[in-house]
Amino acid sequence: MIKTFSYIVFSLFLLLSADSDARKGNEAYAKGNYAEAEQLYRAAIDQDPENAKLYFNLGNALAKQGKTEEAIQTYLEYRGLVETPEEKSLAEYNIGTTLAETEKWKPASLHFRNSLRLNPRDTEAKTNYELALSKMESEDEQQQQQNQEQDNIEPSEYAKAMKAQAEKLVELQRYQEAYDLMNEAMKVDETVNAFKDFIQRTKDVADINS
């Protein structure tokens, strides 16, 4: 069976009175009204800024809305307020899964690993860590293949002509002009990239002379 990433730990902390903003936030969250829940959790935090569990709930509401950056920042605030390794591991786990859902495999694997270090018994964190590593390796292999394909690209006649003209400019020590010529040519013909080493060397010399 193919394994997939576990869902973010969206268990909510329920410990305030029924008429509080936090409780109303939980109710809104349970109904799928995540934007409303976000606003209610923020209101609750304004009243009780040291309550770590409010930040955790807010992070969940943000993550559900696809507000990745804000969610990560909020989980980190929660992590900074809690004491136990198990609590801190929840923040790391949620950050990892949030990143995995946006296919940011390298940072996701880092946070899953952090979660495991804090709570080695968390089997879901272990599974997700292994999957993130696998995705990261696959992504690296694809990138290497793409780089090889670019290296093996066959320049067009136009690209060759531009290269010949640029070489003449280099002989005259007009390096910036040579670089500009190749750079402009690359915008209209991607096969000019076959001469990327020549282009880079030309740019390096032009930068030195400027």
Summarize the structure.
The chain has helices at residues 21-30, 34-47, 52-64, 68-81, 85-101, 105-118, 123-151, 157-171, 175-188, 196-209. By secondary structure, it is an all-alpha fold.
SS-based class: mainly alpha
CATH architecture of the largest domain: Alpha Horseshoe
Number of helices: 10
The proportion of residues forming helix, as a percent range, comes to: over 70%
The largest pleated sheet is described as:
none
Q: Would you give an account of this structure?
A:
- By secondary structure, this protein is mostly helical.
- Helix content is 73%, strand content 0%.
- The protein has helices at 21-30, 34-47, 52-64, 68-81, 85-101, 105-118, 123-151, 157-171, 175-188, 196-209.
- Helix 5 (85-101) runs antiparallel to helix 6 and helix 6 (105-118) runs antiparallel to helix 7.
- The longest helix is centred in the middle third of the chain and has 29 residues, at 123-151.
- It is elongated, with a radius of gyration of 26 Å.
Key terms:
Serine Threonine Protein Phosphatase 5, Tetratricopeptide repeat; elongated; 2 domains; mainly alpha; 210 residues
Topology:
Elements lengths: L20 H10 L3 H14 L4 H13 L3 H14 L3 H17 L3 H14 L4 H29 L5 H15 L3 H14 L7 H14 L1
